Amino acid sequence: MPKKYSKRYRKGLELVDAKNHYPLKNAVEVLAKFPKAKFNETVEVAFRLGVDPKQSDQMVRGTVPLPHGSGKTVKVLVFAKNGAAADAARAAGAEFVGYEEMIKKCVEGWTDFDIAIATPESMVEVRKLGKVLGPRGLMPNPKTGTVTDDTAKAVKEVKAGRVEFKLDKSGNVHVPVGKASFTPAQLAENARAVIEAVAKARPSSVKGSYLQSCTLSATMSPPVRIDLREFVATV
């Protein structure tokens, strides 16, 4: 075993059969037995998909509400020109709301927020921030519900734990499903919602195996392989 692994990680490896694919319920139970870090680790599911990320018609992207939230405090920026949309966003709990002044801050490199929401009207100028927000995954997009006139609804949804998933350049998708402090049942329900959402997002142009592999892991833990047969059979 490589010396680069920490003592905690090596103990975790002893508790999991790396060759085995666990039903989701069992995978979460294995994860719960791993030695804990000194901070509240993020738990995520990672997918290897049978798609070609270079093909635009094979992009996999979407959002999914987590039944038990993400466990993360989400800072929201809302770009809104008119007063009603701005007021609704503030009332819903958005930390940052504005238009020209917020665009100016972003142009100058400010990105101290987790999600950006914009009204369709404000996108005329906000779309010019593509080079700043795009690489960081912060660009508002109608497909993920972050370009909308109903700013209050959008803010409440992301605050409640709606997470976004998106294919990376290597054909992988990583999605947070909660914190290590969650109960196994909460993590299992959140993970199930994400797996089902990614499964249903299969592009129609994809042939052959789509969900090739899926693992569950915490920030500092080994991965636990998930048996996907129950999900493949339902989509």
Automatic annotation (TrEMBL):
Task: Kindly give the PROSITE patterns that the UniProt entry links to this protein.
Answer: RIBOSOMAL_L1
Work out whether the entry's keyword set contains RNA-binding. yes
Q: Name the Gene Ontology biological process terms.
A: regulation of translation; translation
Which Gene Ontology cellular component annotation is one that this UniProt entry carries?
A: large ribosomal subunit
Question: Looking at the record's lineage, which domain of life comes first?
Answer: Bacteria
Chloroplast among keywords:
no
| Keyword tags | Repressor, Ribonucleoprotein, Ribosomal protein, RNA-binding, rRNA-binding, Translation regulation, tRNA-binding
InterPro entries per the UniProt record, alphabetical: Ribosom_uL1_bac-type, Ribosomal_uL1, Ribosomal_uL1-like, Ribosomal_uL1/biogenesis, Ribosomal_uL1_3-a/b-sand, Ribosomal_uL1_CS
Q: Which GO terms describe its molecular function?
A: rRNA binding; structural constituent of ribosome; tRNA binding
Query: What job does the chain carry out?
Result: Protein L1 is also a translational repressor protein, it controls the translation of the L11 operon by binding to its mRNA. Binds directly to 23S rRNA. The L1 stalk is quite mobile in the ribosome, and is involved in E site tRNA release.
Q: How does it assemble?
A: Part of the 50S ribosomal subunit.
Similarity remark: Belongs to the universal ribosomal protein uL1 family.
Return the protein name: Large ribosomal subunit protein uL1
Q: Which organism is it from?
A: Pedosphaera parvula (strain Ellin514)
* Taxonomic placement: Bacteria, Pseudomonadati, Verrucomicrobiota, Pedosphaerae, Pedosphaerales
In the UniProt record, the gene name given for this protein reads rplA
